[in-house]
Each structure stands twice: as C-alpha cells, then as structure tokens.
Specification:
- The chain is α/β, with parallel strands linked by helices.
- The protein is built from 24 helices and 7 strands.
- Helix 7 packs across helix 17.
- The longest helix is centred in the middle third of the chain and has 34 residues.
- The radius of gyration is 32 Å and the shape is elongated.
- The protein starts with a helix and ends in a 35-residue tail after the last strand.
Length: 677
C-alpha cells in the first residue's frame, strides 16, 4: 500500500539528506547573493515609491526634496554596509547583531535585538510578497480581487522551496534575482541615454496633478521637517535585510568571513546603483503617485476604481515604449519574482536566528532541529504561518504593512554598532601591533558613526511611524522579548530541578513495586498486558476494572474465574459512570498508604494503521495516562496490541512526516587519504 503522505513529502521536499552531507549545502558567493541579499536588492522596487508617496501628501511642490532624501538613504546604506563588514570578520559564527550585542552589551540587550529582528523578518516576508503581488496586479489589473489568495499562495511556494534546503532554494532563486538586477540596470541606462539625447521618457501619470492631503497643505517649519523625515524613514526600507548576511556567515564556503564580506559589498554597491537609477528616472519621467487615487487631478473615470501602477512599472512603460512592450513585461515579471523571492532573505535569516536562540534556551528546542534536507524546518514553518496570518489580516496591502516595517532592523543596527564599538575598545586594550591598532581604530570610527546615524534614524522612524501602525511592531517585539525571557527561566528552572546532586541517593530502590493492570473486558490485549505485568515480577499484582454497569462487571468476574486467572480482579463501583476519576483516586490512595512504594500501571492499547481509527479507540486510555502522569510515584506503561490495519502502516525505519530530529549534525570524520577542505 502506498504511503501517499510520504510520496507527496518527497515530491515537495526531496530525498532526506544524511547529517554528513551538511558540507554539501555550503554556498558559493554567486548563490549566496540571491539568497541573503534579495531583500535589500528588491527594495529598489518600492523604496523610491515610498518616498514619493509621503512627499505627495503635501502636493507636487515637495517632490524637489526627493534627490536629497535619496542621497541621505545612500549615505546611510554605505555606513551600514561598512559597519556590517566589521561584524562578519569579528563574529563569523553567524549570530550577527544578536551575538555582537549579547557579547558586548549583555544578554538583555541581545534579546531586544533578537526580538526586533524576528519581528522584522516576519514583516520582510509580508511586505515583500505583498509588493510582488502589487507588481503582478500592475501588469494584470483584473487580478486585484485575488490579492490575498495570491500572496498566501506565494508564501506556501517559498516555504516548500526552503524546506528543500538552502542550496536548492538558492539555485531556484538565482535566475530571477540576476534577471531583476540586469533588467533594472538596462532600464536605467536606456532611460538615461534617452534623457541625454533629448528624448526623455514620460510616465503615464506625468500629466496628472496631485492635491495635497487636508492635513498636509501649505506646510512650513516643523510640519515640513516632519514630512521630509517621514519620507526619509519610508525610503530607509531600502536597508532592510542588510544584516542577513552577518547572520548567515556559517552557510558560506571557506573562507567564510571573506566571502561573506565580499558578498555584502557587492550587495551594497548593486543596491545603491539601482536605487539611485530608479529614483533619477522617477524624477525624469515625472511619475506622480499618491496614497489615494482620488487626489490625482485630471484623472478621467471613477477614481475609486482606478488602480495606480507602481513607480517601477510606470518607469518601465515609459522607457521601453508602453505597457505592451517586451521590456515592460520583462521588468514587471522580474520585479514581481524578485519581490516575492526577497522574502527568502527572511526564510534564511529567521530560522538561523531562531536556531541560535533555541540553542541558548530562549526559544523551544524544536527550533534548533534540522529537517530532512538539513534546513531548520520548524523555524521555516513558524515564519510561514505567522507571515500568512499577517497578510490575511492586513489584506496583503503594502501601504498598511509598511508602517510596521524597518523599526526592528534599525534597532538591531543601532545596538550592534554600539556593541562593535565596545568590541574594538576591548581589542585595543590588549593589542600591541601598530598596524592592527590602526585597523581597529578605523573600524571603531566606522562603527561609532554607524551607531549614531542608525540611532538617529531609529528615533525618526519611531517619531514618524509610531501612531501610523509601528506601535504594533513595538508591541510584538516586547511580547516576544518577555516570552523568550520566560522560556529561558523555565528551561533554567527545569535544569536545576533535574540536576543530580547525589547519584547514589537517586538510585535508591523503592520499598515495593505494586502492579496494576487496567481491564475493561477480557480479550487478547488484556491477557498480553497481564503476562507483561507478571514478567516484571512486582511485589503485588492485581487487575482493576471500573463497574459502570453491574451486570457487565458480574459477567467479567465470571469469565475471569472460568479462565482460572490467578491474578486478583478488583472491581471499583462507579455510580456516576465515570472511569478516569475512580482509577486515579484508587491509585492515589495506595500512594498515600505507602509513600515509599512505586505503583506501576499497565494499560492495554490498540495500535492502528489509520489516523481516524484513533478516534474510535484508546480514548479512555489516553485520558487515564494524562491524569496518572501527574501523580508522583506512578509509572504508566502502555502494552500495545497491533490490529490488522497497523500492518499496512509505515515500517519503523521509514521517516514519518515531521518526525523528530536533533539539531546540529556532527562534523563527519575525515576519510583515510583525505584532507579537510
């Protein structure tokens, strides 16, 4: 009989990999770039748009601030990339910001970073997928009514790909990422050449005017400053995901730190180049976009039903000759794919960070376990479920989700750079080599500048986005921080409680062992349980049944005597037809009379081959076991009886879906005649 679940699992995830194959999943730089850098690279598709959306709240007159805001974002990204290059060299074990802050600023601050990053990774998936769906709708507007279903479907596809392993997901995602990079660069070069030759492309929205929002009309002084700061904080979405490479250093091939640093540099250079190009073309083509289409003037038809194309879609149409041109569809396809795949940055960063936190006992141990393909499957599934719920709750709307974004990542940026400053201070206290000291001084200046700049941005983000929805991200991070502290306290208390102080004292034998076999009727499973209990040779053995119906109890007793079973049968009367409570109370009464005795309870159970058969059997046994397990000095033993249907179930050697695995596989021993690579 075919195991349908197992076959489907193998089709989706692939064959299971041995622990010794972990080294085969390490990444070259060409695959690491699309895996860990797809988020900051893809943010080019919406970072410029977010700046324009905020500035047009005051009307078209404020768009002249765009180049200055873009320049500030570029300067900030340069500082952050340089800062994280220091991190990947100083902390190559993969903890990234969490490890830096925990080591240098203490575990409490480290947990703040961890909670912020976990929330930000969830938001990365939600925002990236929603933005990708937006670009698909820009090309095919009739799909607008299926926005949420499409978004959740893409999350499911990403989940399946990542469950196949980091390397395989990298291969699948590399082509769309490189297609997007090359497509955007070609679009930027083409648009700038046309502009230089006097044939400037014009966006479809260039002829529309924009009325200012009622609260943002005629801005001056502090109100104008707040508008510019809001636009800057929205443009800072271009920096999300920069830290993912520092978390994923262990996934690189050797030399890990150098390869990670080079990948980080390439990512920063490409992201800056594309962001500057798209922003320049947005101004050249005169893209006009608003948060509400009804604020566009000159629009014909019903503004409420008008779907505005994204900024990058309007630029592509203007540069390549219209919305039906090949270039337009190439850009839209590549943009939609890379935005959806940008969530892959989180699908790699979240499970890695969750695994480290689980190893440090701040999250459940299951998040440290690797799955069939040596990926952290439980972390991947947890991220997918939370992100899908978020997309469903916010109807996959980018504008609604974006306010919850980037807060966490700038918290991590700021604290990690402060941690690195303390790290270099510590190094300088012991370093005597002049050349090394000069490098440490330079690195400290870079990290100090990074902490000041990112701290300022964090304040701006909090001030401008808190009331617009960022408070939800703050609340989620606080709840997560408290939860992780609670999990750590639980694990610490459990370890202390289970610690062995006196091995000899713990091995003291009980005074007696009293065996009880639970009986509901006299059949083969009951006889097997009786034989099994007798094989244990307890000091006293008895069978126990609960009398719900006196006639049935009397019939059981007659059969017991007819079979000549020499184990005494005790019958407990239950006038209220309960089974669990009389058994538990009887067992507890024995414990009260003889506290130094051990009571061994043997329960016959059916082993079935189909999940639905469990609904028909073993319910009483399940309830009894759950209650008895809370009784000190009571050992509960299940005695299985395999029904015919169980013969068709998976063999014990087969891996069941979701079967338990340990965390980090051991490094394989080198074979004879080989060297470590």
């Amino acid at each position: 009989m075919f195991n349908v679940t197992g076959i489907l699992k193998r089709l989706v995830i692939g064959r299971a990999m041995r622990s010794e194959e972990l080294h085969e999943t390490l990444l070259p730089k060409r695959l690491a770039l699309p895996i860990f850098a797809s988020d900051p690279l893809s943010s080019v598709a919406y970072a410029t748009q977010e700046i324009l959306l905020v500035l047009t709240l005051g009307g078209l007159a404020y768009l002249h601030f765009t180049p200055w805001i873009a320049a500030a974002v570029v300067a900030l990204m340069t500082v952050v990339v340089l800062s994280y290059r220091q991190v990947v060299h100083a902390y190559p074990s993969g903890g990234g910001s969490y490890e830096v802050v925990s080591t240098n600023l203490g575990p409490t601050a480290g947990l703040v970073v961890a909670a912020s990053l976990l929330v930000d990774y969830v938001m990365t998936v939600a925002v990236s997928v929603a933005s990708g769906v937006d670009n698909i709708i820009s090309a095919v507007p009739r799909l607008a009514d299926h926005r949420v279903l499409m978004a959740i479907g893409f999350v499911a596809v990403l989940t399946a790909m990542n469950l196949r392993g980091v390397r395989e997901s990298g291969r699948a995602f590399a082509a769309p990422t490189y297609l997007f990079i090359s497509g955007v660069l070609v679009m930027v070069v083409t648009g700038l050449i046309r502009y230089a030759l006097g044939d400037a492309p014009v966006a479809e929205s260039a002829g529309y005017g924009v009325t200012s929002a009622p609260s943002d009309a005629n801005l001056t002084g502090l109100a104008l400053l707040m508008l510019v700061l809001r636009a800057f904080s929205s443009g800072c979405t271009a920096l999300t995901g920069v830290e993912a490479i520092s978390n994923g250093v262990p996934a690189f091939r050797k030399p890990k730190s150098r390869n990670a640093a080079e990948t980080l540099t390439a990512m920063g250079a490409l992201a800056i180049l594309m962001f500057v190009g798209v922003t320049a073309l947005a101004l050249i083509t005169k893209v006009h976009i608003t948060d509400d289409a009804c604020r566009l003037t000159g629009l014909t038809g019903d503004c409420a039903s008008y779907t505005q194309r994204t900024v990058i879609a309007q630029i592509a149409a203007a540069v390549f000759g219209g919305e039906h041109s090949v270039g337009f569809y190439v850009i839209q396809t590549a943009t939609a794919l890379v935005l959806i795949l940008a969530a892959n940055t989180a699908f790699n960063g979240f499970p890695l960070l969750a695994s480290i936190l689980a190893q440090h006992r701040y999250l459940p141990h299951q998040l440290h376990n690797r799955g069939d393909r040596l990926a952290f499957s439980n972390g991947i599934l947890a991220l997918a479920v939370v992100a899908a719920l978020l997309l469903w709750g916010f109807k996959a709307n980018v504008t609604s989700l974006i306010h919850l974004y980037i807060l966490g990542v700038f918290t991590a940026f700021t604290l990690s750079q402060l941690g690195m400053v303390r790290h270099w201070n510590s190094e300088l206290r012991t370093e005597r080599d002049p050349a090394s000291r000069r490098r440490h001084h330079t690195a400290r200046v870079i990290n100090a500048l990074g902490s000041v700049v990112t701290g300022l941005v964090l304040v701006i983000v909090l001030a401008t986005k808190f009331t617009e929805g960022a408070w939800l991200a703050v609340l989620a991070a606080i709840v997560l921080w408290v939860m992780m502290r609670g999990i750590r306290r639980h694990y610490d208390a459990t370890s202390a409680e289970l610690a062995v102080a006196d091995p000899k004292g713990e091995l003291t034998l009980p005074s007696r062992v009293l065996g009880i076999v639970l009986v509901s009727t006299l059949h083969k499973p009951t006889l097997r349980a009786l034989a099994y209990a007798r094989a244990f040779r307890p000091d006293r053995l008895e069978a126990l049944t609960v009398s719900v119906d006196r006639d049935e109890a009397a019939a059981l007793l007659r059969r017991w005597e007819e079979y000549g079973i020499d184990i005494p049968l005790k019958i407990i009367d239950s006038p209220y037809r309960e089974v669990t409570r009389p058994v538990v109370e009887y067992v507890r009464s024995i414990r009260r009379e003889s506290p130094r005795d051990i009571v061994a309870v043997f329960i016959p159970e059916y082993v079935v081959g189909h999940w639905w058969e469990n609904l028909l059997h073993n319910q009483s046994a399940l309830w009894l076991k759950n209650r008895l397990l809370f009784t000190p000095g009571v050992m509960v033993t299940s005695v299985p009886w395999q029904l015919t249907s169980s013969a068709h179930a998976d063999r014990p050697t087969a891996r069941a879906p979701g079967s338990f695995r340990r965390g980090e596989p051991q490094r394989p021993a080198p074979r004879a005649g080989t060297r470590h690579r």
